[in-house]
Amino acid sequence: MKNHLVLTLCVGWAISTLLPAVCESAETDTPAQSMTEASGDTRSLAKAAQNPVANMISVPIQNNFNFGVGPTDGVQYNTLWQPVYPISLTEDWNLINRAIIPVPMYQPRVSASQGSTWGIGDIQYEAFISPAKPGKLIWAVGPYLSFPSASSDVLGTGKWSAGPAVAVLTMPGHWVFGGVVSQLWSFAGDSDRADVSFGSLQYFINYNIPNGNGWYLSSSPTMTANWKAAGSQQFTVPVGGGVGKIFKIGKQAMNAKIQAFGYPVKPDGGPEWGLQFQLTFLFPE
């Protein structure tokens, strides 16, 4: 596990720092006018990449490390594949399809009776209806589904769950900020497993650095609430942020971001702090 952690962090650092620098150096002979146009394109692409309901195909790959988990202060790890595929329903409305596929997942030992486990988690799907021509306030709403696909009991709920999801954001100047709120309730599945009532709030604050050649500051933690848990065991609240960059490898647009979070509010056995690295393949029209 330690070797896997070190290798992943090294690869993430190389992609987020070395590759953008290589791509930029290949463009040093670009005329001033073209550079200005490219800068404008980069700002537009950055805002689209930071909009969770943008009308753009994208494939985010998010690696999450949580440290200090359980009685052995273990490392919890997961990779979330989150492809986004928009469909134009009419001239006025879009359907933004988003899947969340957690594989692989690693859960360290959290008790004497449960050892460490690798596998796949519960797959989730969101379908946002959003105006095709939004105003200053961008919004979207739709169903949120969770399927009991986990390869182990400790990696999933064992339940079919559904509920609503709502996204609201605005993009004034160099800023992009807003949030996505969702709620799941179980309606079928393993009768021996606990019912699900699970809420989440992901707020995001992004500042695109003027003349920063694609660099931006970001804070986008996901707060969760397990409404079936008791008292102080209900909430997980990460706090933190990081930095990201829009760049290209050849003609392929990319978005790399790294963030660190502390957990001032967490259930017993929850993580002390976490590290998130996300690489997104962007396919603008």
Annotated CATH topology: Porin
Report the radius of gyration as a whole number of Å. Answer: 20 Å
**Total number of helices:** 2
* Contiguous uncertain segments of 5+ residues: 1-38
Total beta-strand segments: 15
Distance between the termini: 40 Å
**Spatial shape:** globular
Estimate the helix proportion, in percent.
10-25%
Structural class: mainly beta
The top-level CATH class is Mainly Beta
What's the rounded overall pLDDT mean? 88
Largest sheet: 15 strands, antiparallel
Q: CATH-wise, what's the superfamily?
A: monomeric porin ompg
What proportion of the residues form beta strands (DSSP E)? over 45%
CATH architecture label:
Beta Barrel
- SSE topology string: HHEEEEEEEEEEEEEEE
Number of self-contained structural domains: 1
Walkthrough of the structure:
It is a single chain. By secondary structure, the chain is mostly beta strands. It has one domain (2-283): monomeric porin ompg (Porin, Beta Barrel), CATH 2.40.160.40. It has helices at residues 2-25, 32-49; strands spanning 57-69, 74-81, 84-88, 93-107, 117-119, 123-131, 137-147, 159-170, 175-189, 197-208, 215-219, 222-226, 235-249, 252-265, 273-283. Strand 9 (175-189) and strand 10 (197-208) form a beta hairpin. It is globular, with a radius of gyration of 20 Å. The model is unreliable at 1-38 (pLDDT under 50).
